[in-house]
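User: tokens in, sequence out, please.
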């Protein structure tokens, strides 16, 4: 599939500017590339000024950029699509030129579908997929090979599942969702009681309810609720290899990066950004609009929006060893500081050094 630059400009709401040697109404592109690697028939974008110098040498047919960078293009036959948010323009064009294959085509002969399962129109189901009793699959759903859809599960219209996704019983998934391969939704939460040194399993009786326009990365796990439900709201995006525990609630349009975890019964607000390797404690509440940088450990409720950090950035090993040795001496240092503070208080109070424990002389 290809588009003229005039067509693309209209779709991304950009202003098409061409040199005297360029004709945006006739010039067509069929793929995206970086400024450095682009060639004939390709369109590039510039949203990070770090790469601004590449505008002078790019061979892309056209570049999506903002007005401030326009003068840096030196190609005599250039085409530019000018807009305030070039990265958003790139995102829209990427969707237009997306060549990702469908997760499934038609209903494969090896699929096992319960007689009382309900399938809407234009449903596609891959090889060796199992759909169990009472499941409801809406219109235009595409389910990849090797998936499992449990009893009474519901999948909304225009949702796609890649291969080997497992959807447990009674899980509900909204419309226009995308779930990547090997994800598990609705497995048991980590619920056990301990008695005389032994663990006694607590059945997880709730389910998982996922809203509309949710995207879930590969090998992510979302546990079903213990009594009530685990809730993932509209517009949430989850990266690969994330763990969401039982009874967690995630608010609308919150984003969560890879390898982060949320413990049970925690409520995360709307429009939060959770970076990679973040750990969030259980039974706490996080307000709307919070940002957690990589490796942050969230141990208590947060009531004010803002940016929160606690991770340890990498340093040279020699420096880390020195700092670690100093950390081990912190307790002794704290005791010495307290002793000096007490001695100084006595100096201020009495006007003299007490028991020679402070090196200060009071004048």
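Assistant: Sequence out:
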């Amino acid at each position: 599939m290809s588009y003229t630059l005039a067509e693309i400009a209209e779709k991304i709401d950009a202003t098409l500017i061409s040199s005297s040697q360029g004709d945006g109404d006739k010039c067509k592109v069929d793929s995206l590339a970086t400024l450095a690697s682009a060639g004939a028939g390709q369109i590039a974008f510039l949203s990070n000024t770090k790469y601004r110098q590449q505008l002078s040498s790019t061979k892309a047919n056209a570049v999506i950029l903002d007005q401030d960078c326009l003068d840096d293009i030196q190609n005599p036959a250039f085409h530019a699509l000018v807009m305030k948010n070039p990265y958003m323009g790139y995102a829209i064009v990427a969707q237009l030129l997306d060549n990702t294959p469908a997760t499934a085509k038609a209903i494969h002969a090896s699929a096992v579908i319960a007689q009382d399962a309900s399938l809407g129109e234009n449903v596609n189901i891959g090889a060796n997929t199992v759909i169990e009793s009472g499941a409801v699959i809406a219109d235009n759903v595409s389910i990849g090979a090797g998936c499992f859809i449990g009893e009474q599960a519901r999948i909304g219209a225009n949702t796609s599942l890649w291969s080997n996704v497992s959807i447990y019983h009674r899980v509900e998934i909204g419309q226009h969702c995308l779930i990547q391969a090997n994800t598990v939704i609705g497995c048991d939460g980590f619920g056990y009681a301990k008695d005389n040194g032994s663990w006694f399993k607590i059945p997880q009786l709730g389910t998982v309810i996922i809203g509309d326009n949710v995207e879930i990365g590969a090998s992510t796990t979302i546990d079903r609720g213990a009594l009530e439900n685990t809730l993932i709201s509209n517009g949430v995006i989850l990266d690969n290899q994330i763990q969401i525990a039982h009874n967690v609630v995630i608010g609308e349009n919150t984003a969560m990066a890879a390898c982060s975890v949320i413990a049970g019964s925690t409520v995360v607000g709307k429009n939060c950004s959770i970076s990679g390797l973040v750990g969030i404690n259980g039974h706490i509440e996080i307000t709307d609009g919070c940002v957690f940088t990589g490796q942050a450990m969230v141990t208590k409720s947060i009531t004010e929006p803002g940016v929160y950090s606690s991770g340890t950035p990498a340093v040279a090993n020699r420096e880390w060893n020195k700092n670690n040795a100093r950390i081990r001496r912190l307790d002794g240092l704290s005791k010495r500081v307290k002793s000096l503070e007490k001695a100084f208080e006595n100096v201020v109070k009495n006007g003299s050094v007490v028991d020679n424990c402070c090196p200060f002389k009071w004048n």
